[in-house]
Amino acid sequence: MDARAAINLTSVVLGAREPVALAGFYRELLGWERHFEEPDWVMIRPPGGGVGLSFQGEPDHVPPAWPAGPSRQQMQMHLDLRVEDLGAACAHAERLGASRAGFQPQRDVRVYLDPEGHPFCLFED
Questions:
Q1: Greater pLDDT, 69 or 51
Q2: Domains and CATH numbers, the chain
Q3: Largest Cα–Cα distance in the chain?
Q4: Distance in angstroms (rounded) separating the CA atoms of residues 71 and 69
Q5: Secondary structure (H, E, C), 12-53
Q6: pTM for this one?
Q7: Percentage of residues in the chain with pLDDT exceeding 70?
Q8: What positions does the domain VOC occupy (predicted)?
Q9: Phi-psi bin for 117: left (phi > 0), alpha (psi -120 to 50), beta?
Q10: Which residue among 33, 57, 69, 101 is least enclosed by CB atoms within 10 Å?
């Protein structure tokens, strides 16, 4: 058996000063369900299963810079979220506490920062 066949991605993990609160933000944003929760570790998953998001407590979390620049906390990753209606999705994200990033590199994509400062992109197909 090929060893790679036994490896599956189950979750993407984001560090946060307040992992329970950040998990709540993404649970509401995505319409996902809480799968597991402890004070410093929360997992959410889409209804019906699949790759989820986890949130790990990091008391010294420093939000990444967007856009990246020299001598600034570098973004290690970001989430790309496909939406049916870009305007409605942007309004929903803002109601939940996301802030629109000042730098928008593409006309048909909106970059937002979650309440802990992680960038994520909303786009239509």
A1: 51
A2: 1-61 (3.30.720.120), 62-125 (3.10.180.10)
A3: 49
A4: 6
A5: EEEEECCHHHHHHHHHHHHCCEEEEEECCEEEEECCCCCCEE
A6: 0.90
A7: 96
A8: 8-125
A9: left
A10: 69
